[in-house]
Design a protein that fits this description.
This protein has about 300 residues and is an alpha/beta fold. It has ten helices and ten strands. The protein folds into two domains: about 5-80 and about 215-300, Glutaredoxin (3-Layer(aba) Sandwich), CATH 3.40.30; about 85-210, Up-down Bundle (Glutathione S-transferase Yfyf (Class Pi), Chain A, domain 2). The longest helix has 26 residues, at about 85-110.
């Protein structure tokens, strides 16, 4: 059985980020397919409340968000590297990546929202509070221009090189590719128009599509939860003495995304650094779990 377990569903562009990382690494891992809609009882049991994907599990340690998954994969599988440009720059791209995603999402919403099942629409409207689903169609032309602008920047960077960081794929490519992939799948004809003339980008898309997803073995959620129950979390790395939020070890905190409603996690702070933190929690069915989060995009507050 693989030491790594990915919880995800393939239709998510953020899952595609994790799959590409695993493909670059040639990693072997277990895979638990999660539902697209809540309730996601098994996933929430593992995380303590967070419903987003992808989530990477190793024993009783749980890693939230593709940016932290990248760090953990690099630590465990350093070759080939994910960071040819340096981890700081490539991880900082996560916020640019979110903007690229939202441009593609708004185009998709403008085109397809009337055809979505009501339950799916309600859930996605709840998930993305920063997008007004009632007026998103009015922003279609602007969203299309933003999508092409993001793509054109990639095309400029790719002039004369196979990948964004040079001759080999890395996290910069992973941060960008899933959103042209999303566009090609969700609105193929329009995507072809919006990406027309971006020849370097189109050649890069073809190279990215050949990376693959590593070697995954499907497994049941119950099996993955049993792995967590039979494991113990790794020792915590400690608390940053210069923490910008003045966080202290053993504080009870609540962690939640700062841009979407993917669910919060409550636990005892056991690790903090300038770029990540972790909380310990106890679940009645699987025992001690440590859930790791990146700093960028996540809000940590004291819990009463």
């Amino acid at each position: 059985m693989s030491e790594l377990i990915l919880w995800s569903y393939d239709a998510s562009p953020f899952t595609q980020k994790a799959l590409l990382m695993l493909g670059i690494k040639g990693a072997q891992y277990g895979w638990v397919e999660t539902p697209m809609l809540p309730p996601k009882a098994d996933l929430v049991t593992l995380t303590g409340g967070y419903r987003g994907t992808p989530v990477l599990q190793s024993g009783a340690d749980v890693y939230i968000d593709s940016q932290l998954i990248a760090r953990e994969l690099e630590r465990r599988l350093p070759t080939p590297p994910l960071f040819p440009l340096g981890s700081g720059l490539e991880l900082a791209m996560v916020k640019w990546s979110d903007a690229f995603f939202r441009s593609a999402l708004k185009v998709a919403l403008a085109l397809m929202l009337p055809q979505w099942p009501e339950e799916f629409r309600r859930d996605r409207q709840y998930l993305f509070p920063d997008i007004d689903f009632e007026t998103v169609a009015d922003e279609a032309e602007h969203a299309k221009s933003q999508f092409r602008a993001h793509a054109a920047l990639l095309d400029q960077q790719l002039a004369g090189s196979d990948f964004l960081g040079g001759s080999k794929p890395g996290l910069a490519d992973v941060q960008a590719y899933p959103f042209t992939w999303l566009a090609r799948g969700a609105f193929a004809d329009l995507a072809a128009q919006l990406l027309e003339g971006l020849d370097a980008l189109q050649a890069w898309e073809q190279r990215m599509a050949t990376i693959g997803h590593g070697r995954r073995t499907p497994m049941a959620a119950a099996e993955a939860l049993a792995v967590a129950r039979d494991s113990r979390p790794q020792p915590a790395a400690g608390i940053d003495a210069l923490d910008a939020a003045l966080l202290k070890g053993s504080a009870v905190v609540e962690v939640s995304p700062d841009d979407t409603r993917r669910g919060g996690v409550r636990g005892t702070l056991v690790h903090s650094s300038p770029t990540e933190f972790a909380v310990h929690r106890v679940d009645p069915s699987i025992g001690d779990i440590v859930v790791h989060f990146p700093r960028l995009g996540y809000r940590l507050t004291p819990a009463g």
